[in-house]
Automatic annotation (TrEMBL):
<feature type="modified residue" description="S-(2-succinyl)cysteine">
    <location>
        <position position="76"/>
    </location>
</feature>
<feature type="binding site">
    <location>
        <begin position="76"/>
        <end position="78"/>
    </location>
    <ligand>
        <name>substrate</name>
    </ligand>
</feature>
<comment type="similarity">
    <text>Belongs to the maleate isomerase family.</text>
</comment>
<feature type="binding site">
    <location>
        <position position="14"/>
    </location>
    <ligand>
        <name>substrate</name>
    </ligand>
</feature>
<feature type="binding site">
    <location>
        <position position="163"/>
    </location>
    <ligand>
        <name>substrate</name>
    </ligand>
</feature>
<dbReference type="InterPro" id="IPR053714">
    <property type="entry name" value="Iso_Racemase_Enz_sf"/>
</dbReference>
<feature type="binding site">
    <location>
        <position position="133"/>
    </location>
    <ligand>
        <name>substrate</name>
    </ligand>
</feature>
<comment type="subunit">
    <text>Homodimer.</text>
</comment>
<protein>
    <recommendedName>
        <fullName>Maleate isomerase</fullName>
        <ecNumber>5.2.1.1</ecNumber>
    </recommendedName>
</protein>
<dbReference type="GO" id="GO:0050076">
    <property type="term" value="F:maleate isomerase activity"/>
</dbReference>
<comment type="function">
    <text>Catalyzes cis-trans isomerization of the C2-C3 double bond in maleate to yield fumarate.</text>
</comment>
<dbReference type="Pfam" id="PF17645">
    <property type="entry name" value="Amdase"/>
</dbReference>
<dbReference type="InterPro" id="IPR026286">
    <property type="entry name" value="MaiA/AMDase"/>
</dbReference>
<dbReference type="InterPro" id="IPR028615">
    <property type="entry name" value="Maleate_isomerase"/>
</dbReference>
<feature type="active site" description="Nucleophile">
    <location>
        <position position="76"/>
    </location>
</feature>
<feature type="binding site">
    <location>
        <begin position="195"/>
        <end position="196"/>
    </location>
    <ligand>
        <name>substrate</name>
    </ligand>
</feature>
<keyword id="KW-0413">Isomerase</keyword>
Length: 252
């Protein structure tokens, strides 16, 4: 059984990434993982605080390079998407260059890029979203995904600006929001377009209730981390994206 070190770059107020990503990867049958974090200060999910947080990224990359991680997840989706279309490619390129300068051989994943890639792996073109963000930021996320040639058929913003409160949004509130979306002709539902809004108890449940593939920023991140490490993205009770034999398996 192989062992892998996973680096997590997270907002200082985020408590969900370090709960859900380890919980997901612990389900893998052929590997074990340790998790090593670095934090960027951010409390309120606003354009100003997100930009200031992004400026701290370089320090976090250096810290995790020192730890010799095998993979690194830059875990704040909206911090990247709020900067405009295609930003995840620029960020991933910059971080990869920084890792190379530090002689660190780590596979890099951003939450923003992971969601785009995971939707592609599912073959999803028409999607629906549940976001915790205030409406102007949610609109930026929608525009970002549409710039990736995805059709966002319906979406909802829960209008929670305090990032600590995002981590405590009840699952039933998220499920009710998902039930209120028009899912006609939708290929996949993103039940949490934020790594801080808890999703693990909801993904499989929502798939069964709503009858379509369901993923989240967390399951997308796990999918891309596993793929980057050369491991099968096959985890129980985590939705179609992480199920062997699913559409995603055919697109790997």
């Amino acid at each position: 059984m192989s062992h892998h070190r996973v680096g997590l770059i997270v907002p200082s107020s985020n408590v969900t990434v370090e709960t859900e990503i380890p919980a997901l990867l612990a389900r893998h049958r052929d590997a074990t993982f340790s998790f090593h974090g670095s934090r960027m200060r951010m409390h309120t999910v606003s354009p100003e605080e997100l930009a200031a947080m992004n400026d701290q990224r370089g320090r976090c990359v250096d810290e995790l390079a020192d730890a010799g991680v095998d993979a690194l997840l830059y875990a704040c989706l909206v911090a990247v998407m709020a900067q405009g279309p295609g930003e995840h490619r620029r960020v991933e390129s910059e971080v990869a260059a920084q890792l190379h300068e530090r002689s660190a051989d780590a596979d890099l994943v951003s939450s923003a890029g992971a969601l785009v890639d995971a939707l592609g792996a599912l073959g999803a073109r028409r999607i629906a979203l549940v976001t915790p963000y205030v409406r102007p930021l949610a609109e930026r996320v929608v525009a970002y995904l549409e710039a990736e040639e995805l059709e966002v058929a319906d979406w909802v913003a829960l209008e929670v600006a305090d990032n600590a409160e995002v981590g405590a949004i009840p699952g039933e509130r998220v499920m009710d929001a998902a039930r209120g979306l028009d899912l006609t002709g939708v290929d996949a539902l993103v039940i949490s377009a934020c790594v801080q809004m808890p999703s693990l108890p909801l993904v499989e449940r929502a798939e069964q209730e709503l009858g379509l593939p369901v993923l989240s920023a967390a399951t997308a991140g796990a999918f891309c981390l596993l793929r980057g490490l050369g491991l099968a993205p096959d985890l129980p009770d985590a939705g179609s994206l992480l199920r062997a034999g699913s559409t995603a398996a055919l697109h790997r």
